[in-house]
Protein backbone atom coordinates (compact mmCIF):
# COMPACT_ATOMS: atom_id res chain seq x y z
CA UNK A 1 0.00 0.00 0.00
CA UNK A 2 1.35 3.44 -0.95
CA UNK A 3 1.92 6.10 1.71
CA UNK A 4 1.56 9.37 -0.16
CA UNK A 5 1.27 12.92 1.15
CA UNK A 6 -1.32 15.29 -0.19
CA UNK A 7 -2.02 18.97 0.51
CA UNK A 8 -5.73 19.18 1.29
CA UNK A 9 -6.36 22.66 2.72
CA UNK A 10 -4.75 26.02 3.32
CA UNK A 11 -5.49 29.12 5.33
CA UNK A 12 -4.00 32.44 6.34
CA UNK A 13 -4.25 35.29 8.79
CA UNK A 14 -2.75 38.77 8.82
CA UNK A 15 -3.02 41.32 11.65
CA UNK A 16 -5.51 44.12 11.12
CA UNK A 17 -3.16 47.08 11.48
CA UNK A 18 -1.82 48.31 8.12
CA UNK A 19 1.37 50.34 7.77
CA UNK A 20 1.77 51.81 4.29
CA UNK A 21 4.76 53.47 2.64
CA UNK A 22 3.50 56.95 3.50
CA UNK A 23 3.57 55.98 7.19
CA UNK A 24 7.31 55.29 6.80
CA UNK A 25 7.88 58.73 5.27
CA UNK A 26 6.91 60.10 8.71
CA UNK A 27 9.44 58.06 10.71
CA UNK A 28 12.55 57.65 8.48
CA UNK A 29 14.02 59.46 5.49
CA UNK A 30 12.39 57.52 2.67
CA UNK A 31 9.61 57.83 0.10
CA UNK A 32 6.77 55.77 -1.25
CA UNK A 33 8.40 56.06 -4.67
CA UNK A 34 11.78 54.71 -3.44
CA UNK A 35 10.19 51.78 -1.63
CA UNK A 36 7.92 50.81 -4.54
CA UNK A 37 10.68 51.20 -7.11
CA UNK A 38 13.26 49.14 -5.18
CA UNK A 39 10.99 46.51 -3.62
CA UNK A 40 7.42 46.54 -5.01
CA UNK A 41 6.06 46.75 -1.44
CA UNK A 42 3.07 49.06 -0.85
CA UNK A 43 1.95 48.12 2.64
CA UNK A 44 2.45 45.57 5.40
CA UNK A 45 0.55 44.32 8.46
CA UNK A 46 1.76 44.96 12.00
CA UNK A 47 0.76 42.82 14.98
CA UNK A 48 -0.61 44.47 18.12
CA UNK A 49 1.76 44.66 21.06
CA UNK A 50 0.01 41.73 22.74
CA UNK A 51 -0.38 39.69 19.53
CA UNK A 52 2.27 36.99 19.08
CA UNK A 53 3.27 34.41 16.49
CA UNK A 54 1.21 31.69 18.22
CA UNK A 55 -1.90 33.90 18.03
CA UNK A 56 -1.67 34.51 14.30
CA UNK A 57 -0.64 30.87 13.63
CA UNK A 58 -3.75 29.69 15.45
CA UNK A 59 -5.93 32.08 13.42
CA UNK A 60 -4.43 30.84 10.14
CA UNK A 61 -5.45 27.29 11.12
CA UNK A 62 -8.97 28.48 12.00
CA UNK A 63 -9.16 30.05 8.53
CA UNK A 64 -8.06 26.74 6.95
CA UNK A 65 -10.75 24.88 8.89
CA UNK A 66 -13.45 27.35 8.02
CA UNK A 67 -12.59 27.43 4.29
CA UNK A 68 -12.40 23.69 3.75
CA UNK A 69 -14.56 22.30 6.59
CA UNK A 70 -11.80 19.75 7.23
CA UNK A 71 -11.65 17.67 10.39
CA UNK A 72 -8.39 18.50 12.15
CA UNK A 73 -9.20 16.74 15.44
CA UNK A 74 -6.91 13.85 14.42
CA UNK A 75 -3.92 16.00 13.38
CA UNK A 76 -0.89 14.13 14.72
CA UNK A 77 1.89 16.67 14.10
CA UNK A 78 2.19 20.47 14.04
CA UNK A 79 5.25 22.05 12.46
CA UNK A 80 5.59 25.80 13.02
CA UNK A 81 8.21 27.50 10.88
CA UNK A 82 9.21 30.78 12.47
CA UNK A 83 12.15 32.94 13.44
CA UNK A 84 9.99 35.03 15.78
CA UNK A 85 8.66 32.55 18.37
CA UNK A 86 6.73 33.87 21.39
CA UNK A 87 9.32 32.23 23.67
CA UNK A 88 12.44 30.09 23.28
CA UNK A 89 10.31 27.43 24.96
CA UNK A 90 7.46 26.42 24.88
CA UNK A 91 7.41 26.25 21.12
CA UNK A 92 4.86 28.17 19.04
CA UNK A 93 3.60 24.78 17.80
CA UNK A 94 2.89 23.70 21.40
CA UNK A 95 0.84 26.85 21.95
CA UNK A 96 -1.08 26.20 18.75
CA UNK A 97 -1.63 22.58 19.81
CA UNK A 98 -3.08 23.78 23.13
CA UNK A 99 -5.23 26.50 21.56
CA UNK A 100 -6.69 24.02 19.07
CA UNK A 101 -7.06 21.30 21.74
CA UNK A 102 -5.31 18.73 19.53
CA UNK A 103 -4.66 16.05 22.15
CA UNK A 104 -2.84 13.63 19.83
CA UNK A 105 -0.56 16.05 18.00
CA UNK A 106 3.20 16.30 18.32
CA UNK A 107 4.49 19.85 18.15
CA UNK A 108 7.75 21.40 17.05
CA UNK A 109 9.13 24.67 15.72
CA UNK A 110 11.69 24.87 12.95
CA UNK A 111 13.83 27.89 12.15
CA UNK A 112 15.10 28.16 8.62
CA UNK A 113 14.09 31.84 8.38
CA UNK A 114 12.49 32.61 5.00
CA UNK A 115 13.01 29.01 3.85
CA UNK A 116 11.09 27.66 6.87
CA UNK A 117 7.78 26.96 5.18
CA UNK A 118 9.22 24.95 2.29
CA UNK A 119 11.45 23.03 4.73
CA UNK A 120 8.32 22.36 6.78
CA UNK A 121 6.37 21.04 3.79
CA UNK A 122 9.22 18.71 2.82
CA UNK A 123 9.49 17.43 6.41
CA UNK A 124 5.71 16.82 6.47
CA UNK A 125 6.01 14.84 3.23
CA UNK A 126 8.82 12.77 4.79
CA UNK A 127 6.87 12.12 8.01
CA UNK A 128 3.82 10.94 6.10
CA UNK A 129 5.54 8.86 3.41
CA UNK A 130 7.68 7.13 6.06
CA UNK A 131 4.51 6.12 7.91
CA UNK A 132 5.21 8.15 11.07
CA UNK A 133 2.30 10.57 10.72
CA UNK A 134 -1.00 10.82 8.89
CA UNK A 135 -2.13 14.42 9.27
CA UNK A 136 0.35 17.28 9.61
CA UNK A 137 -0.27 21.00 9.97
CA UNK A 138 2.55 23.09 8.48
CA UNK A 139 2.45 26.73 9.55
CA UNK A 140 4.69 29.61 8.46
CA UNK A 141 4.17 32.58 10.78
CA UNK A 142 6.10 35.67 11.83
CA UNK A 143 5.76 38.78 13.94
CA UNK A 144 8.85 40.41 12.43
CA UNK A 145 7.69 43.86 13.63
CA UNK A 146 8.86 42.80 17.09
CA UNK A 147 12.48 42.48 15.90
CA UNK A 148 12.48 45.34 13.38
CA UNK A 149 14.41 48.52 14.13
CA UNK A 150 12.10 51.33 12.99
CA UNK A 151 15.00 53.79 12.88
CA UNK A 152 16.87 51.74 10.24
CA UNK A 153 15.43 52.70 6.84
CA UNK A 154 17.38 49.94 5.09
CA UNK A 155 15.40 47.19 6.86
CA UNK A 156 12.23 48.61 8.46
CA UNK A 157 10.45 49.26 5.16
CA UNK A 158 10.82 45.60 4.15
CA UNK A 159 9.24 43.51 6.88
CA UNK A 160 5.70 42.67 7.98
CA UNK A 161 3.69 40.18 10.04
CA UNK A 162 1.47 37.33 8.88
CA UNK A 163 0.73 33.61 8.96
CA UNK A 164 -0.17 30.84 6.54
CA UNK A 165 -1.03 27.19 7.14
CA UNK A 166 -1.29 24.05 4.99
CA UNK A 167 -2.82 20.71 5.95
CA UNK A 168 -0.86 17.73 4.58
CA UNK A 169 -2.58 14.37 4.78
CA UNK A 170 -1.87 10.71 4.13
CA UNK A 171 -3.29 9.45 0.85
CA UNK A 172 -3.20 6.06 -0.86
CA UNK A 173 -3.59 7.32 -4.39
CA UNK A 174 -2.53 10.94 -4.81
CA UNK A 175 0.59 12.91 -3.92
CA UNK A 176 1.29 16.63 -4.01
CA UNK A 177 5.04 16.25 -3.71
CA UNK A 178 7.20 15.67 -6.79
CA UNK A 179 10.77 16.81 -6.02
CA UNK A 180 12.70 18.96 -3.56
CA UNK A 181 16.12 20.48 -2.91
CA UNK A 182 17.65 22.05 0.19
CA UNK A 183 20.93 23.54 1.25
CA UNK A 184 22.66 26.33 3.11
CA UNK A 185 25.54 28.73 2.56
CA UNK A 186 26.24 29.13 6.27
CA UNK A 187 29.48 30.99 5.66
CA UNK A 188 27.35 33.89 4.34
CA UNK A 189 25.04 33.91 7.37
CA UNK A 190 26.38 37.26 8.61
CA UNK A 191 24.57 38.98 5.70
CA UNK A 192 21.24 38.59 7.51
CA UNK A 193 20.91 37.98 11.24
CA UNK A 194 19.15 38.82 14.44
CA UNK A 195 21.01 38.22 17.67
CA UNK A 196 20.14 38.82 21.30
CA UNK A 197 23.76 39.63 22.02
CA UNK A 198 26.43 41.82 20.52
CA UNK A 199 29.12 39.28 19.64
CA UNK A 200 31.01 38.24 16.56
CA UNK A 201 30.17 35.83 13.75
CA UNK A 202 33.00 34.50 11.59
CA UNK A 203 35.15 37.31 12.99
CA UNK A 204 32.65 40.06 12.09
CA UNK A 205 31.03 42.21 14.77
CA UNK A 206 27.30 41.73 15.23
CA UNK A 207 25.34 44.97 15.43
CA UNK A 208 22.04 46.13 16.88
CA UNK A 209 21.22 43.31 19.35
CA UNK A 210 17.59 42.20 19.32
CA UNK A 211 16.87 43.51 15.82
CA UNK A 212 17.22 42.30 12.23
CA UNK A 213 20.45 43.40 10.61
CA UNK A 214 20.91 42.94 6.88
CA UNK A 215 23.44 43.55 4.15
CA UNK A 216 20.68 44.08 1.57
CA UNK A 217 23.03 44.15 -1.40
CA UNK A 218 24.79 40.95 -0.22
CA UNK A 219 21.54 39.02 0.17
CA UNK A 220 20.22 40.33 -3.15
CA UNK A 221 23.34 39.25 -5.01
CA UNK A 222 23.34 35.81 -3.38
CA UNK A 223 19.65 35.27 -4.15
CA UNK A 224 19.72 36.23 -7.84
CA UNK A 225 22.87 34.14 -8.32
CA UNK A 226 21.70 31.04 -6.47
CA UNK A 227 17.94 30.72 -6.74
CA UNK A 228 18.10 30.03 -10.52
CA UNK A 229 20.45 27.10 -9.75
CA UNK A 230 18.02 25.75 -7.13
CA UNK A 231 15.17 26.02 -9.64
CA UNK A 232 17.14 24.13 -12.26
CA UNK A 233 18.29 21.41 -9.83
CA UNK A 234 14.76 20.79 -8.54
CA UNK A 235 13.20 20.61 -12.01
CA UNK A 236 16.00 18.32 -13.25
CA UNK A 237 15.34 15.86 -10.42
CA UNK A 238 11.84 15.29 -11.78
CA UNK A 239 12.67 15.69 -15.47
CA UNK A 240 10.52 18.79 -15.80
CA UNK A 241 11.27 21.92 -17.81
CA UNK A 242 10.61 25.55 -16.82
CA UNK A 243 7.89 25.69 -19.47
CA UNK A 244 6.00 22.93 -17.62
CA UNK A 245 5.50 25.13 -14.57
CA UNK A 246 2.03 26.56 -14.07
CA UNK A 247 3.29 28.84 -11.27
CA UNK A 248 6.47 29.85 -9.49
CA UNK A 249 6.08 30.71 -5.79
CA UNK A 250 9.38 32.11 -4.53
CA UNK A 251 9.95 33.64 -1.12
CA UNK A 252 8.20 36.98 -1.57
CA UNK A 253 10.93 39.37 -0.40
CA UNK A 254 11.42 41.88 -3.18
CA UNK A 255 9.66 42.15 -6.55
CA UNK A 256 12.78 43.38 -8.38
CA UNK A 257 14.77 40.44 -7.03
CA UNK A 258 12.05 37.98 -8.12
CA UNK A 259 11.84 39.54 -11.59
CA UNK A 260 15.58 39.15 -11.96
CA UNK A 261 15.40 35.50 -10.79
CA UNK A 262 12.61 34.86 -13.33
CA UNK A 263 14.60 36.46 -16.16
CA UNK A 264 17.75 34.52 -15.31
CA UNK A 265 15.77 31.27 -15.04
CA UNK A 266 13.68 31.69 -18.17
CA UNK A 267 10.43 31.71 -16.18
CA UNK A 268 7.79 34.16 -17.39
CA UNK A 269 7.41 36.96 -14.84
CA UNK A 270 3.64 36.65 -14.74
CA UNK A 271 3.96 33.09 -13.44
CA UNK A 272 5.51 34.42 -10.20
CA UNK A 273 3.09 34.44 -7.26
CA UNK A 274 3.89 37.16 -4.72
CA UNK A 275 2.44 38.48 -1.49
CA UNK A 276 4.87 41.35 -0.87
CA UNK A 277 2.77 44.15 -2.38
CA UNK A 278 0.22 43.90 0.47
CA UNK A 279 2.22 42.22 3.23
CA UNK A 280 5.92 43.05 2.70
CA UNK A 281 8.50 40.40 3.54
CA UNK A 282 6.87 38.11 6.12
CA UNK A 283 9.73 35.57 6.04
CA UNK A 284 8.33 32.03 6.55
CA UNK A 285 4.78 33.26 5.82
CA UNK A 286 5.35 34.78 2.37
CA UNK A 287 4.84 31.60 0.34
CA UNK A 288 1.57 30.41 1.95
CA UNK A 289 0.31 34.02 1.79
CA UNK A 290 1.15 34.15 -1.95
CA UNK A 291 -0.71 30.88 -2.48
CA UNK A 292 -3.66 32.19 -0.52
CA UNK A 293 -3.84 35.35 -2.65
CA UNK A 294 -3.57 33.26 -5.83
CA UNK A 295 -6.48 31.11 -4.71
CA UNK A 296 -8.54 34.20 -3.87
CA UNK A 297 -7.74 35.56 -7.35
CA UNK A 298 -8.86 32.17 -8.79
CA UNK A 299 -5.48 31.62 -10.46
CA UNK A 300 -4.81 28.08 -9.21
CA UNK A 301 -6.46 25.05 -10.79
CA UNK A 302 -6.35 21.43 -9.65
CA UNK A 303 -3.20 19.68 -10.91
CA UNK A 304 -1.30 22.92 -11.54
CA UNK A 305 2.46 22.41 -11.25
CA UNK A 306 3.89 24.85 -8.70
CA UNK A 307 7.54 25.36 -7.77
CA UNK A 308 8.01 26.91 -4.33
CA UNK A 309 11.47 28.17 -3.40
CA UNK A 310 12.17 29.51 0.09
CA UNK A 311 15.48 31.30 0.70
CA UNK A 312 16.98 33.79 3.11
CA UNK A 313 18.56 33.83 6.59
CA UNK A 314 21.14 31.10 6.96
CA UNK A 315 21.71 31.71 4.15
CA UNK A 316 19.50 28.66 3.72
CA UNK A 317 17.12 27.51 1.02
CA UNK A 318 14.58 24.78 0.31
CA UNK A 319 12.45 24.15 -2.74
CA UNK A 320 9.48 21.91 -3.32
CA UNK A 321 7.85 21.09 -6.63
CA UNK A 322 4.21 20.26 -6.04
CA UNK A 323 1.07 19.33 -7.88
CA UNK A 324 -1.85 21.41 -6.57
CA UNK A 325 -4.25 18.84 -5.14
CA UNK A 326 -7.01 21.04 -3.74
N1 LIG B 1 14.67 54.90 1.52
C1 LIG B 1 15.52 55.72 0.85
N2 LIG B 1 16.84 55.43 0.68
C2 LIG B 1 17.28 54.29 1.23
C3 LIG B 1 16.45 53.39 1.93
C4 LIG B 1 15.10 53.75 2.09
N3 LIG B 1 14.22 52.98 2.73
N4 LIG B 1 17.18 52.33 2.32
C5 LIG B 1 18.42 52.53 1.88
N5 LIG B 1 18.49 53.72 1.23
C6 LIG B 1 19.65 54.35 0.61
C7 LIG B 1 20.95 53.93 1.22
O1 LIG B 1 21.22 54.64 2.41
C8 LIG B 1 21.92 54.24 0.12
O2 LIG B 1 22.19 55.60 0.13
P1 LIG B 1 23.65 56.17 -0.22
O3 LIG B 1 23.87 55.78 -1.67
O4 LIG B 1 23.51 57.62 0.01
O5 LIG B 1 24.59 55.48 0.73
C9 LIG B 1 21.11 53.92 -1.14
O6 LIG B 1 19.73 53.96 -0.74
C10 LIG B 1 21.44 52.58 -1.72
O7 LIG B 1 21.44 51.63 -0.67
P2 LIG B 1 21.48 50.10 -0.92
O8 LIG B 1 21.33 49.36 0.38
O9 LIG B 1 22.67 49.79 -1.76
O10 LIG B 1 20.13 49.97 -1.75
P3 LIG B 1 19.62 48.80 -2.64
O11 LIG B 1 19.36 49.27 -3.98
O12 LIG B 1 20.46 47.57 -2.46
O13 LIG B 1 18.20 48.50 -1.98
C11 LIG B 1 17.23 46.89 -0.51
C12 LIG B 1 18.11 48.12 -0.62
C13 LIG B 1 17.18 46.46 0.96
C14 LIG B 1 15.84 47.25 -0.98
C15 LIG B 1 17.81 45.77 -1.40
O14 LIG B 1 19.18 45.63 -1.16
C16 LIG B 1 17.15 44.46 -1.15
O15 LIG B 1 15.96 44.33 -1.27
N6 LIG B 1 17.94 43.43 -0.86
C17 LIG B 1 17.44 42.11 -0.61
C18 LIG B 1 16.85 42.12 0.71
C19 LIG B 1 15.96 40.96 0.92
O16 LIG B 1 15.10 40.69 0.15
N7 LIG B 1 16.17 40.29 2.04
C20 LIG B 1 15.40 39.24 2.45
C21 LIG B 1 15.84 38.03 1.74
S1 LIG B 1 15.25 36.77 2.65
TrEMBL record:
Transmembrane segments: none
Main localization (coarse): cytoplasm
Compartments, record wording: Cytoplasm
Notes on the domains: The last Arg residue of the ACP-binding site is essential for the weak association between ACP/AcpP and FabH.
InterPro entries: ACP_syn_III_C, ACP_syn_III_N, FabH, Thiolase-like
SUPFAM superfamilies in the cross-refs: Thiolase-like
Residues covered by the Beta-ketoacyl-[acyl-carrier-protein] synthase III C-terminal domain: 235-324
Domain of life: Bacteria
Beta-ketoacyl-[acyl-carrier-protein] synthase III N-terminal domain residues: 108-186
Official protein name in the record: Beta-ketoacyl-[acyl-carrier-protein] synthase III
EC numbers, comma separated: 2.3.1.180
Keyword Nucleotide-binding: no
Reaction catalysis annotation: malonyl-[ACP] + acetyl-CoA + H(+) = 3-oxobutanoyl-[ACP] + CO2 + CoA
Pathway(s) it belongs to: Lipid metabolism; fatty acid biosynthesis
Task of the protein: Catalyzes the condensation reaction of fatty acid synthesis by the addition to an acyl acceptor of two carbons from malonyl-ACP. Catalyzes the first condensation reaction which initiates fatty acid synthesis and may therefore play a role in governing the total rate of fatty acid production. Possesses both acetoacetyl-ACP synthase and acetyl transacylase activities. Its substrate specificity determines the biosynthesis of branched-chain and/or straight-chain of fatty acids.
Oligomer status and interactors: Homodimer.
Keywords: Acyltransferase, Cytoplasm, Fatty acid biosynthesis, Fatty acid metabolism, Lipid biosynthesis, Lipid metabolism, Multifunctional enzyme, Transferase
Similarity-based family: Belongs to the thiolase-like superfamily. FabH family.
Annotated HAMAP family: FabH
Active-site positions on this chain: 114, 251, 281
First-level EC class: transferase
Region spans: ACP-binding: 252-256
Amino acid sequence: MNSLAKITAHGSYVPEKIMNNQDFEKIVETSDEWIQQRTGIEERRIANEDEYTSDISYKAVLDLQEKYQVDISDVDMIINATLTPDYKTPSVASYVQAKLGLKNAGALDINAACAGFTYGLNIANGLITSGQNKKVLVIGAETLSKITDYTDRGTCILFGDGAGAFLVEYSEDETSFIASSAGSDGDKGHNLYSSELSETMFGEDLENPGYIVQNGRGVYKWAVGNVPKIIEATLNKANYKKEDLSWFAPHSANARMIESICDRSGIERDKALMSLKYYGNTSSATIPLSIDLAVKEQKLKKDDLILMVGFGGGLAYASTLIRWTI
